[in-house]
Each structure stands twice: as C-alpha cells, then as structure tokens.
C-alpha cells in the first residue's frame, strides 16, 4: 500500500512517464524485493519491442533486451496480452535470460513475472521483474500489486499519447497559421485578418503596380507608415529607396531645403550642395506623413514637382528630373483645410487619386488578440523576458476601445511586460494599466464642453490669430500640458500653436 501511495504521489507531481516509471521500478526493488524491473515497449510501427525503462540493469543488459512478438516469455506476453508467471526460470525452457544472464542472479530458485501493459484494448508493452521464491510474502499479493501498477503504466502512457496528439494538432495548427501569415497581409508585416483590414490590403495590392499617388486616411496610430512601406514593397520600385518624412516634425524654415535640397551658398552655412528627399527617392517611393501639416507656401512647389516630375533646389536654377511615387497620409479632414484656405484644393485632388481608408483598431476587434500576441513576443525577445497573457487577459484587451489604436496597444504591451511582477498576467493585471489609457480618453472627452464654454472653435483648421494667451493656456491645462492635443482641440496644428504662442510674446514651450 505504501508503494502505491508513493507512485500515485509521483504521478500527481509529474505526468511525464520517464521519471515516474524509473522511480516506480526503484520502489519495487527497495520495498518489495521485486528486482531488475523493466518496462518493455513496442517499437513504433514494428512487431518487436525493447526495454525502455529499467532499474538494476546495466546499459549492456538494457541494450540486449529486444524481443520479437512470441519470442521468449516477454514476447509471448506482448503477443497474447496475458500474464505469465515463471515459478523457476531454470525449469522453464522458454525463458531466454537474454537481458540478464543467469549467472548475474542469485543461485537459488528465481521467479519471473511478466504482465501486459494495455492501452485500451491493445497490448503496448510488458511490465516484468525477478522475484526470489523464498520470499515470505505471498506470490498472489505481489501479482495483484503488479497488475495495478501495469494498469497505471498503461494509463500514464495513454495520457502521454493524448498529450503528444494534442501537441501535434497544435503544431499542425501553427503550421496552418504560419502559412496564413505568409499570405498577402503577413508578407508586408501587417498583422491581422479582419475584413476591413483585408479590404484595405486588397486595394493596396490592386494599385501597387501603378505610379499613381495614394492618400492613406485614418486615425493616428492605425499603421499608415506600415501600409506605405507595404505599398512600396508590393510595387516594381521595391528595390529602390523608400523615404519617409513626417511633415509635422520639420520646422517650417527647413522644409523646402529638406524636401527639395539646396545648392552651395543658398543660405548661411550651405558650404556644399545637398540633394533633398525627392532626389534621394528618385525611382523609388516618398512617404509624406501628416501631409496636412505642410506649410501652404511649400504646397505649391510640391504640386509642381508632382505635375511636371521636376524640381529646383533652393538657391538653384537648374531643373532636376525625378521619378517618384508619392504616398501621403493624414488623420485630418483635408477638405476642411481646403475650405479654410490652409490646404490647396489642386494639391488635394492631385493627392487623392487613390484614397485608401485604414480601419481603426476598434473596427478590427478580431485582430486585437493576434496583435497583442505579436507585440508581447517581440517585447519579450528584445528585453529577454518571458511574460505571457492568460485567455482572460486577452479578452480584457479585446473589450477595450483603443482610441490610440495600434500604437496605444503596442505601448501598453511594452509597459506591462517591462513592469510585470510575474510571468503570467491575468485580466486583473491588465486592469492595472488600462486606467492609465482610459484616463487620457476621459480627459479628452471632457475638454470639449469646457472649451465650448470659452467659445472655442472645433474646426479641423482654424484661424491662427483668433486665440488669446488665456485660451492657449486653458487648452494646455485641460490637456495636461500636451501641446499637440491642445492644438487639436483648438482647431490648430502644432506648428500654428507654436506660432501663436510666440507671437503673443510667450517663451518657448
């Protein structure tokens, strides 16, 4: 009974057969004197078997323990599926003494007990051991115990087979997913299979072979740069340059020289001539992100370059021919900019040849799980961490609205991985971080009525000279000091906000 208790405790701690069977055979020898125990298992897809687990046998003895069906006592049990007890191995001609030579055993009478190991209705192996006949304990008691152990071994092997089958099924499923990820979306590095996303990718692929301008429309954080790069990779220009410019990040005074280049002596400090981004992108693709932030004076020169395929460097007179595919992106309503006079109508129509709308993350609800797993794998690899999410945590991520879209999700995943206190995070752990995200949204939502009470315009584009210092300060306070968000609430660009702030005699922000 003690042996059974210990074996069951072993199985409870470890479902792997190897350590359990080894210790079980050890206990048979130490507690009951059933020595040289071995578990013989069938070879995969063969009519033979060999010793897979043993206690008290040398490596050479284990190596010799191979049997065909019907060969010797072990082979007969393997073939017929019935218990065989040899009372005296010296009196049994069918006993081969193949694994353990007779000279290695005690000189007196030695018994041999072999029991079938069943998995369902199939004999998959044999549990066998030697027994000294002079033992005071009844043979029937030992056989009863061995029957129980053989049944446990069969169940353990069945469990292992089930786990292996599930593992194979998961591997096959992963292979299918890997194949799917090699499809149109994944080969561009775009994660997801939602209908809205696949529709955008389909539009992208249909226009990839042309040189027509493409305007990517969508909220901030929806992956416009990734789509622009995907369009480049899908086009015949894939082996040429891909130049990305964020129009909102370039000071107005540097915009022309950066975009179109300059000649030597064009301005103080221009010791040598320099090619601009359009020249660097010749035969390739140029991506103008946040095109709505481009100064009005530069829009005219950009339009001319797009129409004529030529440019003139700052301080130069020579026309330089360029062949560039333009991809522009914005989260703004450019038609409102046209109406307010801050965006050229002819440039708008030149850019809007192929408009592609990118869905927000809220419109790609079914992609959140896959994106989260992708980001957590990436952050784990980069930071040498091993943090994972439970199913409940993934559901919690899917339930959130994600106003900041994919960028917000990526940032959240990085934060929770780096600050995780345990390797497996549940929904409650996610909730510790989500309020940080939700707080921004709530604050933004509450700004509108406050600003309305100060009679502020919510137009996408507004008059730069229509706001007082108090209005600018109030917007900054409401937006927690975030200049870009304050400008957005006032219907201004960040550059316009800076301009108005300085014009009112205020210092640098």
Automatic annotation (TrEMBL):
GO terms for molecular function: ATP binding; sequence-specific DNA binding. Gene3D superfamilies: 1.10.8.60, 3.30.450.40, Homeodomain-like, P-loop containing nucleotide triphosphate hydrolases. InterPro entries: AAA+_ATPase, AAA_lid_NorR, GAF, GAF-like_dom_sf, Homeodomain-like_sf, HTH_Fis, P-loop_NTPase, Sigma_54_int. GO terms for biological process: regulation of DNA-templated transcription. The keyword Hydrolase does not apply. The keyword Nucleotide-binding applies. Residues 190-418 form the Sigma-54 factor interaction domain. Residues 149-180 form a coiled coil. Keywords: Activator, ATP-binding, Coiled coil, DNA-binding, Nucleotide-binding, Transcription, Transcription regulation. Pfam families: AAA_lid_14, GAF, HTH_8, Sigma54_activat. This is Two component, sigma54 specific, transcriptional regulator, Fis family.
